[in-house]
Each structure stands twice: as structure tokens, then as C-alpha cells.
Automatic annotation (TrEMBL):
Protein name: Phytanoyl-CoA dioxygenase family protein
Record's signal peptide: none
Database matches in Pfam families: PhyH (PF05721)
Alphabetic keyword roster: Dioxygenase, Oxidoreductase
Amino acid sequence: MSAETYAGLNALSEPGEFTELDRFMFESWGYLVIPNVLTAEEAQECLEAATRLHEKEGTTGWAQVGRGFETEPVLDRLIDHPAVLPKVRALYGDRFILQSAWCTKQPAFGGFGGWHQDGSGAYDFKQLGYPIPLLQLRASFLLTDQSLPRMGNMEMIPGSHRAQVPLPQDIRREKADLPIGQVICAPAGSVLLFHNAVWHRTYVHDGDYDRYTMHYIYSPPWVRFSDRFENDKDYLARTTPVRRYLAGEYERPDAPFGAGYPAAAFDDKKDN
Ligand SMILES: O=C(O)CCC(=O)C(=O)O
């Protein structure tokens, strides 16, 4: 897909390396759109896996199912996808974990979601200081076509991760539009990579089919998992060293002296 396919301003990136321009766009807007991460066939396989996950759980309406990577190999493969992982590493360094993986369904003819920033209901990230730090970096793999608005897209407010004032209550209450909302338009197989503090919502979906998106959330290693209480032991035994590392099952080398984390498992091992 070429940049011309997208109308208007877009924080368009490319698979792989996190370029200086990527960094500037990410700092400025809080997100990047990466087309052509999955082929049409790969996106279709993942869509089938996502559908199975929700069928197994018997979900209805807007719903999210966690830890699907444990049972669906095609979703496991996305955890360290080479189109995305270099960007995550460029933002975090080599010590981070997969905090959660949520498969979300926006049902056929689903309405608008509520505006929100990502974080923890138990402890508002705003309490940590300004600007809100990067603690949940989300890579959202679009598994259905979202090339046009009203296809269950994500809508983002560019730069809002740096806003020092909250989104007005009436806009949140009424799930209202605002002039600076950007509906992310991209085909299946694209990835939206975004900062937890960017205000966003699920856009309306006019289609007669369910929309699925696979979200992978990366965090510093001391953040607690949110889609699982603990890792499945069988999964850990059969997955790859890199994914096992990202599962965050370290012994507690930080206790009591804060040293001795295991070496990162990435192929091009950097200094650890
Ligand atoms: O998949 C979606 O529609 C949006 C998910 C979302 O905004 C969230 O989980 O924070």
C-alpha cells in the first residue's frame, strides 16, 4: 500500500526499523500506522483464530478475550513480529514484557465506544506525573478491512498524550465527535502502534459482520499482567525463547539488590 491510498494527514510508517521520522511522529502524535505488516492470507488466518477465540468464550456485543496467543499459534507469532518489534525495542530498550494481549470484537452494526486513555483503573497513570509515561505501548493488528471510516476503526486524538487538561466531560458522556479526532483508515494486516496516554475510542461499525482487532500491549518488566494472573506452563515450555522472555517470567533478580536480570533473548543480543 502506498501513502497515496490514505487521504489527509497520517503518521504513516513502514514495517521494521524505527526511523528518526517514526520517532518524531510518535513523539508528536503518540501513534504510528504501519501498513503491510501481514499479508492478506496471514490476516485471514488471524481473523479465523480471533473468531474461534470469541466463539469459544461465547462473547456477545463489544468484547475482548485475553491470552489467545496461548492456544492460537498464528496469534502467538504476532508477539514478536519483525515489522513491529524493532519499534517497540527502540522505544523501550530490551527489557519489556507482553503485559496483555486482547482480541477485541466490535460486533456487526456496533456503535461508538467511549473515549479513554489506556491505563490502570486501580491507579490512574496521571498520578505518575506529566507527561504521562509510556507504560502500555499497544500494537493493534487490524484483522478486518478498515480502509474507510465507519468500519469499526480506531479513532485517535493526535498529540493528546501530552494534553494537560482532560477531554471535556460532555464529549465523553455523549461519545461525541470532536474536530481533531482522526479515524484510522487502513486495510486488514496493518498495525496501529500507540502510546497509552493518547485519547482514543472505537469508531462506529456499519458492516453486517463482526470486526476483530488483535492488541498486543508491551510494558516495562515490573508492570503486572492484565490478561492473566500467571503464564500457562505448557505454553512457556513450547514457545520460543524470545516469547518466553517477553512472557516476563523472570526470577526476582531485582530483589533485594536490583541487579542481575537475565540477558535479553533477542537474536542480535545488545549489551544487557
Ligand atoms: O479494539 C477496539 O475497538 C478498541 C480497544 C480499545 O480502545 C481498548 O481496549 O483500549
